[in-house]
Prior knowledge:
Mean pLDDT: 89
CATH class: Mainly Alpha
Number of helices: 5
Largest sheet: none
Low-confidence stretches: none
Amino acid sequence: MKNAWISIGIFIVMLGGMFYSLNYLNKSCEKIENDSARLETLLNDEKWKEAYDLSNKLYYDWEEKAQIMPVFVNHMEIDALNNEILKLTQYVKTKSKDEALASAHSVKFYVKNIQSLQKVNIQNIF
């Protein structure tokens, strides 16, 4: 009977960890996606100083969040998003509007892709 309680306890801890990690992932990705959308608006309005500040903030926020995510997200997805955010900061710094807009859109795509890969559905199970 003692083994059954240990197994049930471990199962409950695992479920709690899963819910925590999915919640953390969704909140982090939502913040990155919102910042990217706001950055696109700033780029369209050609507010380069504000856009550069926001791109740096986006980078440092991502660096902080990306320390934990590889535990439960594919490392390749994290690296791709990290590279795209790094490129974005440089495109904004050099005021390359077309490249910066494309990069900001790619950041949103990678974030949505990370979120969709972590959803519990039949496609992700098989």
